Amino acid sequence: MFKHLSLLSLLLALIVPSNALAAKAGHVRHVEPTAEKSKGSCADDATWKVVTLGSVDPKTCFKTSDGGGVELQLNGDNSSIKIAENSVVFLDSLVEKNADGFYVTKPHIQKGYIGFNVEKNKHNKVDFSTGTAAASIRGTNGFIGGDSLSFMASLESGKLAIFPTGQDSLAISQGETVIGREKFIILKLKSSGDMEFAKKLIDLLADTTKSIDELAAAAIAADQAFQEKLAEKKAAEQETQVAVDTTQKAEEVSSLKAPRISYTGYDSLRCVANVSITDVPKDTETIVQTLMDGTPISEVNVKNSSSKRLKLQSGVHEYEFVVENSAGRSSVQQTLGCYPLKPFSIKVFGLPHEHLQIPPPPPGVEDVIMETLQFQIRIPENDPNFLNRVLVRQDGTVILKETLSQIQNLDYQIPVELKRGHMNRFVIEAIHKSGYVVKTTKVYEVEK
């Protein structure tokens, strides 16, 4: 059992230039009945008055019952604390800036719990105290509570330094919860910092028959159940919202006109198609999508009727251009080839100029000299569909001409007949569909 902790300051900066102006340091901005306050004491026989909106005095005790609550906003920034139901909290003091330049307040929680949201790098600093521990915050969001037997603190964001009575200090950060009794245990809970979950946690701590380890297990189970209920609530809200949205959309669709799209041309070098989009109501969410060979490759939003340039991909593909909004859709299909300008080369096997020493045939035998002209067209796409024409000339005479679909491969082995005592000159020319042209030469010189 912990000894009662002497009051430790919980500073929530209230901008107070002097003791005379301390009442202007903060104010009550929201009250949930029932809530009462007393000046100077939390005793049952103190003079209790109903809490009303207005300034906050130091040395004030706040007491809430079932369903009650008091939210205090501190001047200087949007920092606030909220005293929950069934709580007794003594606001010990509102003081001027400390040595670090922060305004300080000191709430002592005698019973129940407080939610807090203290802005980071602002004017306010808060140090809470309970009967079993104290905690210091700045730039933190969560809840803290307890009594002379138990302690709890939980963070949605920020960090919290905790000083248990008679034990070493500890700290928690975002997503963590600490509970304390005969010892302190830190738990990672998804519900950390949630004020609705704080109510369940404070009810668990009220059970003095359970050990702290049993309470930790119960807190973990409560966290899981709380999250499941949140998920169910969210799903129900989403279902309701979907129904509302569906009704609204149906009403909107009835007044809308389906958009239209038409194909107006394309640029095979820049790889763009031009389309015209019409009948788009102003500021109506409309999507223009490009599908290539049945697979979506791009999507853009348009807010009114306009012309668009849509990106294509290299090669020949089946394209579908689709425009769609809540009123309907339309599409147009085109087979388009995209051939961006890319340099390539022709590799001729062997030396560029070959000297052949071939003995003449015996008398009466025809002098026929055959050779294989072998070359390879090396284009980046490695696809013959990107070629427009392949041409081979022998001494100015065309011996091979292939165009478009006739071009089936990129490797050529052409049997050629050479003349003796002659420089047999072959010119190889390949034209890419982008218009890029490559020429190379091969010479066979056959001696007499």
CATH class of the largest domain: Mainly Beta
Find the structural class using helix and strand composition: mainly beta
Distance between the termini: 118 Å
Uncertain stretches of 5 or more adjacent residues: 1-24
CATH architecture of the largest domain: Sandwich
Radius of gyration: 42 Å
CATH fold group of the largest domain = Jelly Rolls
Biggest sheet details: 9 strands, antiparallel
Task: Tell me the number of helical segments per DSSP (H or I, 4 or more residues long).
Answer: 2
What is the helix content?
A: 10-25%
Number of domains: 3
Number of strands: 33
Shape: elongated
> What fraction of residues sit in β-strands?
over 45%
The pLDDT mean sits at 87
Lateral strand order in the biggest sheet: 4-1-6-7-10-13-14-17-18
Structure explained in plain terms:
By secondary structure, the chain is mostly beta strands. The chain has three domains: 212 residues, Sandwich (Jelly Rolls), CATH 2.60.120; 79 residues, Immunoglobulins (Immunoglobulin-like), CATH 2.60.40.10; 102 residues, Immunoglobulin-like (Sandwich). It has two helices and 33 strands. A nine-stranded antiparallel β-sheet has the order 4-1-6-7-10-13-14-17-18, covered by helices on one side. A nine-stranded mixed β-sheet has the order 3-2-5-8-9-11-12-15-16, with no helix packed on it. Strands 27-33-32-29-30 form a five-stranded mixed β-sheet, with no helix packed on it. Strand 21 and strand 22 form a beta hairpin. It is elongated. The N terminus is likely disordered.
